[in-house]
UniProtKB/TrEMBL annotation:
One cellular component (GO) term of this entry: membrane
Every PLD phosphodiesterase domain range: 205-232, 385-412
Example of a GO biological process term: cardiolipin biosynthetic process
PROSITE patterns: PLD
Pfam families: PLDc_2
Domain of life: Bacteria
Protein's name in the database: Cardiolipin synthase
Keywords: Membrane, Transmembrane, Transmembrane helix
């Protein structure tokens, strides 16, 4: 009797590969606590089932979203109860519950009104460094601005200041692959954060360090949305068609928050150098005096067990009573944050969103119309800035202002290493609101227009492909 021949021998192999792929997905998700939004999880599962030969390698390359597990946090009930008594109490209590650094007093806040002011403060602070100077940027431009920054950092290193520079591994290529050898020759310590394809099987190819900080002697912090390239400060250099500098938001301040930022820099530095993340002793922070102006460092990203800033934003939108002002270059949020903005508007909160008419990322522009239409239908006022806008700012009522590096898109919210700073005093909030008003100059209100079903399907597919890998 002849043996039975399976009519589709390839089907058994396909089924085996599918099983292996799904087991790998579940195993890594459990091992690394890779919490995902339902749409992302469903997308990966369907991809693994339908095309496992392609999906499994891609998942191993891009599937990691968190590099740390949730850990038991020390109880701080007294601090949390005290924070709850302030107008910003709910926000501060949640930040403490998420294990973020505590709010600390600060002094001498300077909000940079334009690129020239930001550059002047950056150079002044670098020249003022006596002992240490830490610099982290997503990219460093291969242009006159980038060259000037490199020259200044090299000068400070030759003058005896310990200078460390950290650039994202992918951002270096986006900046035109600037030459870093002059820094090394001058004694500057240089690290590239997650070099592309250096450790593909660790699943971190898709993670970017988008934080932008300059820390001087652990006393001063310069941060915000500007990378160290010409378009963020003075416009594009002589090798490009002349374009004005982008509208962006950076600021600097003095106080213990600089030490907190340096502590975070030390952890990022260890990751970039492929060294164990150090267990740092607790910082000796001053107790805030009643009525003191407070600022709080809000790191977000794969090194945080929770999606910290995302969860703070969602809760702040749900608790808003009077107004929300949001400024971002790219607006492609997940459904929950989108609903939080929409529901705030529906219950009578004045919600204003400022985005550029056209950003420097065409895919982000193509993916955002569905989200904007939903907000318009809910009563949100959406404003289109005529020029490129790269600032990141969210103000909720008169209780909190958040400024820093995080965009309101899914990559920034769930994949990138980001850094925001929360301000709670009315004076600082009013000053950030004034910056938003200035950025709003010349913006036009977006009007709702009907679109076809095919376009909506295309936008949804583009959202998933662009931001949820």
């Amino acid at each position: 009797m002849s043996p039975v021949v399976h009519p589709f021998p390839w089907l058994s192999l396909h089924s085996a590969v599918v099983v292996v792929a799904l087991v790998t997905y579940v195993g890594l998700a459990l091992a690394r606590r890779q919490r995902r939004h339902p749409s992302a999880a469903i997308g990966w599962v369907l991809f693994l089932v339908l095309v496992p030969y392609l999906a499994l390698p891609l998942f191993l390359l891009f599937g990691t979203r968190k590099t740390t597990r949730a850990r038991r946090r020390p109880e701080r009930p007294a601090v949390a109860r005290e924070a709850l008594q302030a107008p910003s109490g709910r926000f501060r209590a949640l930040a403490l519950g998420l294990g973020l650094p505590p709010a600390v007093p600060y002094e001498d806040l300077t909000i940079h009104q334009d690129g020239a002011a930001a550059l002047e403060r950056l150079q002044t602070m670098m020249l003022a460094a006596r002992e240490t100077l830490e610099v982290a940027s997503f990219l460093l431009g291969r242009d006159p601005l980038g060259d000037a920054v490199v020259a200044l950092l090299a000068q400070r290193a030759r003058e005896g200041v310990r200078v460390r520079v950290m650039i994202d591994g992918v951002g270096r290529y986006l900046g035109g692959r600037p030459t870093l050898q002059p820094l090394r020759d001058a004694g500057v310590e240089v690290a590239l954060f997650v070099r592309p394809w250096s450790s593909p099987l660790r699943g971190r190819v898709n993670l970017r360090n988008h934080r932008k900080v300059v820390i001087v002697d652990g006393e001063w912090l310069w941060t915000g949305g500007r990378n160290l390239a010409g378009e963020y400060f003075v416009g594009k250099g002589p090798h490009h068609r002349h374009e004005p500098p982008w509208t962006d938001l950076t600021f600097d301040l003095r106080g213990p928050i600089a030490r907190q930022a340096r502590e975070q820099f030390e952890r990022d530095w260890a990751v970039a150098r492929r060294q164990p993340v150090p267990e740092l002793p607790p910082l000796d922070l001053p107790e805030p005096m009643p009525g003191a102006a407070l600022a709080q460092l809000l790191p977000s990203g794969p090194d945080q067990a929770d999606d910290t800033v995302y969860e703070l934003l969602v809760d702040a939108c749900f608790s808003a009573q009077r107004r929300i002002v949001a400024v971002t270059p790219y607006f492609v949020p997940d459904p929950v944050l989108l609903m939080a903005f929409a529901l705030a508007a529906r219950r009578g909160v004045a919600v204003d969103l400022l985005v550029p008419r056209r950003s420097n990322h065409r895919l982000a522009d193509l993916a955002r119309p569905g989200s904007l239409r939903e907000l318009l239908a809910s009563g949100v006022r959406i404003w289109l800035a005529p020029a490129m806008l790269h600032g990141k700012l969210v103000i909720v009522d008169e209780t909190v202002a958040l400024a820093g590096s995080l965009n309101l898109d899914e990559r920034s919210l769930f994949l990138n290493y980001e850094m925001m700073v929360a301000f709670y005093d009315p004076q600082a909030i009013a000053r950030f609101a004034a910056w938003a008003e200035q950025a709003h100059a010349g913006a036009e209100a977006l009007q709702a227009r009907p679109v076809g079903a095919l376009r909506e399907v295309g936008e949804g597919l583009l959202r998933w492909l662009t931001f949820q890998l």
